[in-house]
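Sync notes, pocket subgroup
Present: LS, DG
LS reminded everyone that the earlier model was apo-only. Rerun requested with iron/sulfur cluster included. Inputs:
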Amino acid sequence: METKIINKQDLAKLIDGLISAGARTVAPVKVGQMHLFQEVRSPAEAVFDYFLARRSPKEFLFPQTEPIFSYTRQKDSVKIHPVDMAFPRTVVFGLRPCDAAGPGILDALFAWDYEDKFWFNRREQTAFVSMTCAQADHACFCSSVGLSPDAADTGADLHLTLLDDGQRYFVEAPTGKGKKLVSEFPSLFKPATDSDAAARGSAGEKAKGLITRKLDLSNVKQWLGSHFTDELWERLSAKCIGCGACAFECPTCHCFDFQDEATPEGGVRCKNWDSCCIDNFTLHASGHNPRNIQHKRYRQRIMHKFKYYIDKFGKTLCTGCGRCSRQCPVTLDIAEVLENIAAKAASGS
Amino acid sequence: MNSNGNQNIYQPKLIRVIDKIQETPDVFTFKWRFVDEKENEAFDFKVGQFGEFTVFGEGESTFDICNSPTQKEYNEFCCRVVGKVTKALSKVEPGETLGFRGPYGGSFPVDKYKGSNMLFISGGIALPPVRCVIDYCLAKRSDYAGLTILYGARTVDDLVYKYMLKDWGSRPDVKLVTTVDPGGETPDWKGEVGFVPAILEKMNPSRENTYVVLIGPPIMIKISMQVLGKLGFDPGRIYTSLENKMKCGVGKCGRCNVGNVYVCKDGPVFTYSEILALPQEDI
Ligand SMILES: Cc1cc2nc3c(=O)[nH]c(=O)nc-3n(C[C@H](O)[C@H](O)[C@H](O)COP(=O)(O)OP(=O)(O)OC[C@H]3O[C@@H](n4cnc5c(N)ncnc54)[C@H](O)[C@@H]3O)c2cc1C
Ligand code: SF4
Ligand code: SF4
Ligand code: FES
């Protein structure tokens, strides 16, 4: 893997350079008490000394709402107006390795048989720059789903690790896109020495040590396969209020809905994030609802992420970022649910 | 295999309603063609596939393409009024423009059925999705052995495709049995009276070299399955089509996911043994 060094001033220059080059440049920005990924107009807006953004950066490939076509009514017919599917070059800075892992997990879904070009055209145009974690909390469990707070290769094009001098980042370029970004701004990236590589190694070890929550997921999928019905579901998830916040903040939830907004002259159809935890997700027009009570909806969340998606696409639909636990209004902690399942699996119940 | 090039898979094509038939008080058949003639020539689909139909300004709904692909001049779907989009559809008249995406989903393995007896069992509004298979078998009549159709509805009024039933009933190479629920008969009703599973039991069909296509309301399916089980039918030779709620139809929106399948893409046609492998409660 190509490695380099970039110092803090030069990182600012890189952001500046991309903005000048016309790229949509996105970074964590402080908004009230939280950090959000937003387009920045100057490097000063970007905050890298931060924990984790409130929402995952999924929205830069798959916005919360977007028009998929519009139409106008004509005398005897209708005219469809396609939306522009060419998207601007975008560089997103400051992802954590868990966030960088999201898109690679979802590619298979957005590609099977039919390609969602909203996703892939944006994906082509977008580069991700991740950073080794400086903080973690009790909700973080990335290392239990095969990731790590210092991993360079979870999906980012460039990965930066702040070295202990607090001024210089060790740069890894795991993809062609990342290497191109380096070669586009050659003066900003300095060669990395062996001692830099060693410092990166110890910074990585320090980051790994931040993760205190370790789950044993080895038997979870198998347990799920035979416990669609179990007392655990109601016991642990009856308190879910079906707000959908967990899915909206999630780097890997992909469910969406279509909504038409219309006037007598025409209208637009939008594709909007949705969640299996919301009560009308599977409500048929007839009134029949297979998931007619909240714990069945939450069960779908766990089943889909830790069994179905793995069976279908070979990947766990979770990066361990912990947002859903942290921000759930009723403190329904996904890691706790998984711990309970693991315990049941271990005890054979 | 990606089939859509750089196309927007969520954008419908325009179709025009060329005829509308009121089947029952709340069921309508729509015949349609693409507005763009070139699309009509290019269009092909497999028996049992569905489409996403747009009523502009109201939304999109899922309906089976209920004619056989051997019928080329126009296509059909049949819709029961239940909610917003279907209510709007009931007001759509010939000449009006709708949107269409499709054909989507898997199909009935009509080639595998060749040489076999076919037993079609259906109830209520679920005849249209069975009809595409019946029509196909009739169009290729010599490829199939016996064709038996059992169709029931709540009342005589609720029977759809009365004109087709008449045609099938008059054919010497089709055995048609129609029934209505007890109390649903009229004085001049000549068919059976009783629930579909009870009539099925009475018919006592042979499982020899037979495939079954079974589509209907959940309760009808459940009890019919018990009867078929008693008669020794193999669930692997019984086919049905699921109607889980859908949005995208192309395996992206997650709506139709049940167990390890996305019904829109892995289905909607399944054998009964495949259905038994799914979490029943979620269907
Ligand atoms: C594969 C498949 C084939 C179908 N074939 C037929 C058919 O041939 N004839 C027929 O009458 N009906 C069919 N249905 C059911 C039909 O799609 C729904 O009755 C219809 O979408 C209800 O829409 P609505 O807007 O009137 O109801 P509303 O409750 O107002 O629905 C709002 C939205 O919810 C969705 N929705 C609600 N119920 C269903 C449902 N049961 N299935 C799918 N989406 C739903 C639709 O996207 C709809 O736009 C089929 C469903 C599926 C999944
Ligand atoms: S089914 Fe639920 S858990 Fe799975 S992607 Fe959709 S919203 Fe997320
Ligand atoms: S688990 Fe929590 S965040 Fe998710 S839907 Fe339920 S209440 Fe909302
Ligand atoms: S309808 Fe969207 S995934 Fe099946």
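DG: Chain A has two domains: 2-208, 220-347.
LS: Residues 2-208 of chain A form one domain.
Action: DG to write up.
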